[in-house]
Amino acid sequence: MKTLCLVVPCFNEQDVLPMFYDEMLRVISTLSGAYATELVFVNDGSRDGTLSVLKQLAVKDPSVKYISFSRNFGKEAAMLAGMQYAVKADLIGILDADLQHSPDLIPEMIRYIEEEGYDVAAAKRSDREGESRFKSMLSDSFYRVINRISDIEISESAQDFRVMRQSVVKAILSMPEHIRFSKGIFTWVGFNVKWIEHKNRERAAGATKWSLKGLMRYAVDGILGFTSTPLRFSFFFAALFACGTLGDLIWALARRLTHPELPMAVPMICAAVFFAACVILLCIGLLGEYLARVYTEVKDRPTYIIAETNAHRPAFVSPELPEIDKI
After folding, report:
1. Which CATH superfamily is domain 2-227+303-309 in?
2. Which of 25, 36, 185, 198 sits between 20 and 30 A of 151, alpha carbons compared?
């Protein structure tokens, strides 16, 4: 029997977890016992009763595993922990607990992989219903920028919701960076991907955990993690400033010859100094962002710390630690 491991990151999801679990039981029952299935919940430092609910589910259902972090490390760390645990399974899936990722798509995803030979079946939204226009505008702007300046093409409607073969997950885990942007990593590793469009769903309960600050940080991590183009901005601004200064000088000389009574020097000097200072500060800021990432990687701290878990090893795989193939 093949194995299916579904990774579910959780942060303050106590209200929705019972509904999610019932939905998953219904969907798993449609697989007709073709897969030994485990649900791996990663509690990302929740401050509500999420861990208590997960423990209750694990008591009544041995296929429910939970990994609880010592604090909130972020969704990227939660997905990483889940994949590292699940890497021995034949198929590994990722979906959110809030039911915006419809569990009903999972059998279809499995079918595309098993019957049509795809390596990954992933979901993408066909609309943005329920999302504010401001958030949609920010999202569209981010994807336009990153796709223009990076070497990979990330679909603006792509989601983390997907089912993958074991070989794909091993490739993802072979990338050791600590500051992770999974949408970029999923795209960078390649493989044969089947995209499945679906309508955007409202959360079944609770409120979104993404703040504007969090989204902006996520966008910066994505851009700086998958392109070095911003480092070249200094050359662009230097050339632009040089051309502007030359043109300004020619204009000032001509103005001086035609209207010698007008004072032009002081305003021009002030404007040039302020413009140069802005360019310098921008370039220093970009270098600082990249240097901060180098600093984080060099420290080599763990991406997450597990406080408690019942997911020491899946029941259907060997007890040895997974060996990650280096690609």
Report:
1. Spore Coat Polysaccharide Biosynthesis Protein SpsA; Chain A (3.90.550.10)
2. 198
Q: What angle do CA 163, 167, 172 make, to 5 degrees?
A: 80
Decide: residue 211, CB within 10 A, 0-12 exposed, 13-18 middle, 19+ buried: exposed
Distances (CA, A) of 84 to 135, 159, 264, 307: 32, 20, 65, 16
Report the pLDDT value the prediction gives residue 123, as an integer from 0 to 100.
Answer: 87
Question: Nearest Cα to 105, choosing from 199, 228, 216?
Answer: 199
> Both tokens of residue 207?
């409120």
Write the burial class of residue 229 (CB in 10 Å: 0-12 exposed, 13-18 middle, 19+ buried): middle
Residue in this structure with the two tokens 């303050």, named with its chain if needed: 12
Which portions of the chain are predicted below pLDDT 70?
126-157, 200-246, 248-249, 251-253, 255-256, 259-268, 270-271, 274-275, 277-278, 281, 285, 292-293, 295-297, 299, 313-327
SS3 202: coil
User: Residue 67 has what DSSP assignment?
Assistant: E
Strands 2-10 and 35-43: parallel
Helix, strand and coil content of the chain, in percent to the nearest 5, comes to 50, 15, 35
Q: What is the pLDDT of residue 311?
A: 80
Write phi, then psi, for 158 (nearest 5 degrees): -65, 145
Specify the pLDDT at position 291.
74
Any idea of the CA torsion for 176, 313, 88, 179, to the nearest 10 degrees? Answer: -20
Q: Which residues pair with 194 in a beta bridge?
A: 121
